[in-house]
Specification:
single chain, 192 residues, alpha/beta, Rossmann fold, two-stranded antiparallel ribbon, 4 helices, 24% helix, binds ligand FFO, binds adenosine-5'-triphosphate, NagB/RpiA_transferase-like, ligase
């Protein structure tokens, strides 16, 4: 299927998730992250949750990496060039929402892409080769192209990868892996 079709379908699928479903799916994803071997990781990049699109809450992941004494990097978006600039997230870094509702750091120290050992990547859907579809502005393709070759790029998603995204182009960067819940929504049972 085409990126444009997939974008529409998976925006809708995510929007249809209930709060309780998201809680369960998130817990499963967090557990998989806590099981990663991060002994070689010093600096990790995370996206800050865009709540209006029901993205995974990355705060528990940030807290976890901080508790493991890792340096956290987050970005600011430039929507005129569709590029990201990066900043160390300190304990005292102030966060404010930009006009698209994306939380962004204020008054923080700049970070270089080459300093990143691990990047968690937001996405709508991925395929079996770990290519991804995002919101369609190419922010992450531009960003990931500047990361080191040995920087691990891991996608996070509530949905299982599809077999193939048909219109992959030369700018698309394949991820190293995608973490998605290892449980089926239909098998979820909720306490009454
Ligand atoms: N948390 C988070 N941060 C991120 C991303 C992401 O996927 N998640 N992005 C990943 O690349 C970039 C932001 N990409 C975005 C692209 C479009 C819209 C958005 O609000 N689109 C409107 C239409 C806006 C317009 O085109 O004028 C919409 O879809 O309704 C938001 C973020 C960089 N930061
Ligand atoms: N490194 C780059 N240089 C120039 N153009 C690029 C680059 N990377 C991506 N693009 C262009 O950006 C546009 C959006 O790309 P694409 O549809 O793959 O976005 P996406 O991965 O879904 O979105 P995002 O990365 O913002 O979540 C495409 O027209 C693509 O050709």
């Amino acid at each position: 299927m085409l990126k444009s079709e997939l974008r529409k379908i998976y925006k809708q699928k995510r929007n249809d998730l209930t709060f309780e479903e998201i809680q369960k799916l998130q817990e499963n994803i967090y557990q998989q992250i806590y099981d990663l071997d991060i002994s070689q990781i010093k600096t990790v990049h995370l996206f800050l949750t865009l709540e209006k699109f029901k993205e995974i809450d990355t705060q528990p992941i940030i807290d976890y990496f901080r508790s493991q004494n890792k340096r956290i990097v987050v970005s600011k978006s430039d929507f005129s060039k569709n590029t990201l600039t990066h900043f160390y997230l300190g304990k005292d870094t102030e966060i404010a929402l930009n006009k698209y509702g994306i939380p962004e750091p204020k008054n923080a120290k700049k970070a270089l892409e080459k300093a990143l050992d691990l990047v968690f990547v937001p996405l709508l859907i991925s395929d079996e080769k770990h290519y991804r579809v995002g919101y369609g502005k190419g922010f992450y393709d531009r960003f990931l192209a500047n990361c080191r070759k040995d920087c691990k790029k891991i996608g996070l998603n509530f949905f299982k990868p599809i077999s193939k995204i048909s219109d992959i182009n030369e700018f698309d960067v394949a991820l190293d892996d995608v973490i998605y819940p290892s449980l089926l929504l239909s098998k979820l049972s909720f306490p009454t």
